From TrEMBL, chain A:
Domain of life: Eukaryota
EC primary class: transferase
Protein's name according to its UniProt entry: Small RNA 2'-O-methyltransferase
Species assigned in the record: Cyprinus carpio carpio
Alphabetic keyword roster: Magnesium, Metal-binding, Methyltransferase, RNA-binding, RNA-mediated gene silencing, S-adenosyl-L-methionine, Transferase
Catalytic activity reported: small RNA 3'-end nucleotide + S-adenosyl-L-methionine = small RNA 3'-end 2'-O-methylnucleotide + S-adenosyl-L-homocysteine + H(+)
UniProtKB/TrEMBL annotation, chain B:
Extent of Basic residues compositional bias: 1-13
Major site of localization recorded for this protein: cytoplasm
Pfam families found in the cross-reference section: GAGE (PF05831), PAZ (PF02170), Piwi (PF02171), Piwi_N (PF23278)
Organism annotation: Cyprinus carpio carpio
GO biological process: germ cell development; meiotic cell cycle; regulation of translation; regulatory ncRNA-mediated gene silencing
Name the UniProt record assigns to this protein: Piwi-like protein 1
Amino acid sequence: MCLMRTHSRADLTKTLAMTTPFSPPLYMQRYQFVIDYVKTYRPKKVIDFGCAECCLLKKLKFHRNGIQLLVGVDINSVVLLKRMHTLAPLISDYLQPSDGPLTIELYQGSVTEREPCTRGFDLVTCVELIEHLELVEVASFSEVVFGYMSPGAVIVSTPNAEFNPLLPGLRGFRNYDHKFEWTRAEFQTWAHKVCRDYGYSVHFTGVGEAVGHWREVGFCTQIAVFQRNFHDTMSNAKRLEPSVYRLMYRVVYPSLSDNNIYQRTLVNEVLYEAQHLRQEWLSRMNMDSSNNAHFCAPPLMDVFQHGLEGGTRDCQPVYQQGGTICVPLARVWSSPRVRALCGSVQRLREELQVDSRVRMSADGTVLILPAAADDEDDEEVEEEENVKAVSGVANNVEEDWDRELGCYGNV
Amino acid sequence: MTGRARARSRGRGRGQEPAAPGAQPSVSQEAAKPVMPPPPEGQLVGRGRQKPAPGAMSEEAMMQISAGFQQVKIGERGGRRRDFHDSGVHTRQLMEHVKESKTGVSGTAIELRANFMRLLSRPLWALYQYHVDFKPPMESRRLRSALLFQHEETLGKAHTFDGAILFLPNKLHNTETVLCSETRNGEKVEITVTLTNELPPSSPVCLQFYNILFRRILRILNMQQIGRHYYNPDDPFNIPQHRLTIWPGFVTTILQYESSIMLCTDVSHKVLRSETVLDFMYSLRHQCGDQRFPEACTKELVGLIILTKYNNKTYRIDDIAWDHTPNNTFKKGDTEISFKNYFKTQYGLDITDGNQVLLVSHVKRLGPSGRPPPGPAMLVPEFCYLTGLTDKMRADFNIMKDLASHTRLSPEQREGRINRLISNINRNADVQNELTTWGLSFENRLLSLNGRVLPSERIIQGGRAYEYNPWTADWAKEMRGLPLISCMSLDNWLMFYTRRNADVAQSLLQTLNKVSGPMGIRMQRAIMIEYEDRQESLLRALQQNVARETQMVVVILPTNRKDKYDCVKKYLCVECPTPSQCVVSRTISKPQALMTVATKIALQMNCKMGGELWSVEIPLRQLMIVGIDCYHDTAAGKRSIGALVASLNQGMSRWFSKCVLQNRGQEIIDALKGSLQAALKAYLKYNNSLPSRIIVYRDGVGDGMLQSVVDYEVPQIMQSIKTMGQDYEPKLSVVVVKKRISSRFFARIDGKIANPPPGTVIDTEVTRPEWYDFFIVSQAVRFGCVAPTHYNVVFDSSGLKPDHMQRLTYKLCHMYYNWQGIVRVPAPCQYAHKLAFLVGQSIHKEPNMNLDDFLYYL
């Protein structure tokens, strides 16, 4: 019962660096392999077994490509507790919420146990994991992952024993915790059996190639990518609370799929646009009224150009009505950011009509904003307060602290 | 058997640095050392402490650890290097007269509540410090902690271990415990855990530990750390016009206060902007055109703090690399990679504008394991969010009003927010779990304490004296129609105006005439001069009309644009020293407000020419009060400006002012030494004697700078006094004034939570035991929460009683002539602030010395 931190990884890359340096380092290449897979196949739910320091999860968080649920499982809760906060949303995730939802969960648990909430995933990754299992456990691993969870795809990576002679100074396994290191043939035998037993097909690849005639020993890390052959029935199953695993961390990222956040973001964008149009209009009016004729020409030009630039023939003007400034919805709609947020003017109108921060005309074509800036002198309210005695007001006795100090002692 | 390691065997990213070979301490002798008592506290100097690299300590460092905690720092990544709380500055013990008591007696008692909570620990609680020794030595810190925590049943659930030092809340059975672990490849490791120290709850290490623990708690409560504070991202409010997002949050510190360890927590707000630097650049270019863009861009952006999209780091923009775009490359490891590709592969971020220029930030942060900073950081504007407010926004009344409506909390709201935090802490199961494993808890209510309200002062104006409303703390109404102490008559003065403002200029002139009579100011008609609304023409008008015998120049500015104001001040403060008064036409455009405004202008003009307005009774003779403040010019070359203002008479109504520009690498006090000597000479000239007491109020001391004031500035001040004569030995007091503090006090007035009244002094419970310090709430605020001012007497040879020190300080808050009421700091500090600000913002040069005796900068 030993939990060992592998310093082997660092050592490995260090020794390799002397003769056949992998660039980028091998572990990066393994992560990159998963990222590339995600980019191509766009799974929605991904589970990473043996997530340890959550490096892969952290990478996938950035390279989401449509991932909505990202789960990490590790048997060691201490390391999860230590690292889990690195998966928290960044400040920028709040400032500009992403389009799609993302939830990250971390569990403490073992890949040889059946946990109902791990079913129905699109992709399971087991990067450099199986070689740490006893061979008997590998069988139950296969049963749990392929038979019980039966995800859409599984990526399994493991060292290629045939490559080992190329690693200088290496005797035995690459890591003291490895229970076995398979040759390509052994790995493939296992993989093909899994495919037969659980209805998957597989193809093999890897990362880290040797140069020259050594090429034929294969990749340093061999990778098997399994695809499920049958249609799955569970992917839409309701999310369950874990019954075997222990939930260590769960975080829901802010996203536009959350209605409140969507509404807030949209209204902010609309008000930004509308206020700018209002401001522009006001400053033009100011100029017109306060200056002589020669100032009139440029603004008109400006309007003209603006219309051309906007590309919209129907450049409806901003206008004043009583104490309010009216900004046509169509002008706000022309902002690309607003457009990106909601697909049609119709939808925009509907969203705005239910929001209390926006005032609209009855027919929903015009936004209504106050004309004048609030008066600066509002604050000058003279308040006649009833005078309360706070403390004894000024004792009229004349004081002399110098003299008092005299008594106080010649310190 | 199932090998927990299986799950963690994945390669790790950039890893920790292995210890330097040979640096491994010979720890076997160490293990035998007995527990030693901590050294006297006075030596625990906070600044410049280095975080020791665990496991790579010299033997010398090890000795120190077991001897106490000079070097111990509980490891936490990104830990502070500066001591922001100035703990370890022990000044009180050096002042005989306050060793016993530093509390005052004057005034009436008032019951208050403060934003403090006691930290409770079970009786006899201590933090046990153990030294952990591995045989054979293990290099990896992670491996060491993995090996050690195989023995969780022995060590307990709560522990903090940095690789060499272990802290436990419980004492192990034996002083020395030997544990055996086995690595996966069968290597046996003997771990010796030896008690080296029993840290009492108030020891510096414990305090550090509480703060780390509390930050963990805030993180459990889903707060985001920005800078030193924590904010709640789930409940933002927005100001959409400017794409501002404001997060509410808290400033927290746990420290040893007068009688107990407490958590001080105050509400704080973070202004963020959902606008990238690139967005900003686009709109700026749109506004000012391609030609002026580079200049405008540099002016607007340099000095701003930005936040990067891909991590939570903040940077200050120091420069713009006009010749760099994201297509440029940089060296990552051994390979060249373009910024564009880097962000794509690293973070999956696409750069949409390949032609944007890059931002440069000179990073001061040290590289990994204390290596020198890696050189300037190049940042892509598209991935940088702006933070905070620009000066432009600050000047925008509407933004500030919107902001204030959200951030300015009434005493009731503020107390409510803090109480909500307290109840969150007490309700959250995870938080409670974290606290109880350490045997700690927080008292679930705010601290109650007693303060005193000082008697209000009598304002003396000429032969008369009057009192003011103690709640509003201003006497604008009371002084109406009363003659001032001394008035300068206006015989030869000029008024400049533009054609558009000819009418308002006339009405201002008439109203000034009307209001000046009752004050006692004799006023001749001003010479009216029209100028064209351009900076050059204004300057020309000044040059042509301001003469040697001109007493006062009034300029009516059409807008509040800074450039013309700067132009007037630059010319009339440096080249042609003449008191001047600028008025923005808007402020005098409303006829109904004109009387009030003109009264204020008349008072201000009188002060600028050397007149005196009012006074309070100062019961100390031969006293000179000095105020010092600085202004840090962040934009233009980061040059600091120091200002010194010293009283010249008994009534504190005449002041000598001096302003210096600090040179690079120079301490501000070096430059101000000469100013202090000049002030003493001026005092001598006015009084025919030197002062027998000098009290220096030093404002503008940043967090963590107290030690340098004590160690460096005080001796410099004494030296400077000495130059007036060998046998000249006045009594000296140096008081550090601090306005930006997070202590808040709440009073109950008529059953409602309210601000404490002006004159409230707090000198117990929330003060620091090692200081001679007190708080005064001197000003009154109409909205929001009043901020108390903290006074820390760091040096005092005057023997003045604490009560007198407090009252004198409060009296001086009455003497700022630009406000007919009580201000937040003693008048000389406010004057010094005003002067430094004027020079830093507008003049950028040392003002002409002919103006030294006047309050020309008001």
